[in-house]
C-alpha cells in the first residue's frame, strides 16, 4: 500500500505497467470519486489536490506516474 498522498501543484497521469491493484481517489471534501480495480494497461488521471491511495494486488502493482508542470 502506498500511503495516501496528494500533489498540490500538478495533475497525475498513472499508467499501470505490470500487476494489479486498487486505486482510490477522494475529492477535497472527502467524497470518494474513484475506487476501482486496475490492471496492466489501465490509466487514470488524478487532478491536483485530490488525495489518492494505491493498493497492490496479488501480483504486485507497478506503474508510471507522470506529473504536469508549469515549467
Structure description:
With 71 residues, this protein is mainly beta. The chain is built from no helices and five strands. The protein has strands at 2-5, 12-26, 32-39, 43-46, 52-67. Strands 1, 2, 3, 4 and 5 form a five-stranded antiparallel β-sheet that branches. The radius of gyration is 12 Å and the shape is globular.
Q: How many beta-strand runs?
A: 5
**How many helical stretches?**
0
The biggest sheet, with number of strands, parallel, antiparallel or mixed sense and barrel status, is: 5 strands, antiparallel
Low-confidence stretches: none
Helical residues, percent: under 10%
Structure class: mainly beta
- Beginning-to-end CA distance, first to last residue: 31 Å
C-alpha geometry: globular
Could you tell me the strand content as a percent range? Answer: over 45%
Order of helices and strands: EEEEE
Let me know the average pLDDT: 92
Provide the fold topology.
Blueprint: E1 2-5, E2 12-26, E3 32-39, E4 43-46, E5 52-67
Antiparallel strand pairs: 1-5, 2-3, 2-4, 2-5
